């Protein structure tokens, strides 16, 4: 960063302004607490080489000093119900919109006020479509979230100037539902951070949110099935969430010393754990977009086992860049883990192909594509 908190920009970079808007569930405070501060900073550094940045979120306090750019916390007090927070944040974004000159980029497709922001700002609005939030909400949730998710996401996508999807499947979904022009740019991985370590440990790693949809309970029970056959193997669970206590209670008494809850860690520590793990697992029960957890495991050369759900089935080549198992099937997951533990040739093949495959998601390849898309979007309006 340059003195004064600004990111150094390339000599030939645009001098335009980029307004980045986080979704209602993405608080900067929470990202730092969960160890995702380095990822956010890395993203801002990449964008900051071409644009002057401002960040908006539903936080109640500013993180401008930590981020090195102007941060506008537009959220109400945390004590308000979730729906009330969403409404207040949306209204605050609309009030702020006339000052959003340049390019506006929404990093999550769950704000309904995109048409108002676009009209009041007079700026092109890019919406990141990295996860089909509405389909998952309708299938697995009830109440207002089930009812409102579809109309909110539809209004968000239709109000965009351009949609950036992380997969071809999401691009097709965006095209059919909104009619707005879409491009595919995947998530990126920092290959300097996520890389193989010299020594592998006999551990299975999960890194993510402790939420029922992530299937961590299935992973615990799968591990219990094979623990006696592999006495030196440990299960390490990194992350936090509302299901953590229930998951701790699920661990059989005899395995309490082999199932380790590591909590939320900085990305540097997660990268180290992932690079030294024997196996990574993402046992999602619902669907994913283009999860960074998978491409980070690939970059580390750590074979990953995933559920064959939308967003994962298209990312993993079964028995080449990972193994796919039916979602919720603890027996199939246990068998897949055992295969990778006992079949060294399979483990090595997947490890080598994963590293090779991850290079297409390298930060140095993906971020320049993001820059080009935003420059073109600014020119066409």
**CATH class category name of the largest domain:** Alpha Beta
Amount of beta strand: 5-15%
Number of strands: 13
Q: Distance N terminus to C terminus?
A: 30 Å
**In the CATH hierarchy, what is the architecture of the largest domain at level 2?**
3-Layer(aba) Sandwich
* Rg (CA only): 21 Å
Number of helical segments? 15
Descriptors:
alpha/beta; Rossmann fold; 2 domains; 7-stranded parallel beta sheet; disordered N terminus
Structure, described:
The protein has two domains: 17-188 and 362-380, Glycogen Phosphorylase B (Rossmann fold); 203-361, Glycogen Phosphorylase B (Rossmann fold). The radius of gyration is 21 Å and the shape is globular. The strands form two sheets. It has a seven-stranded parallel beta sheet, with helices on both faces. Strands 10-9-8-11-12-13 form a six-stranded parallel beta sheet, sandwiched between helices. With 381 residues, the protein is of the alpha/beta class. The protein is built from 15 helices and 13 strands.
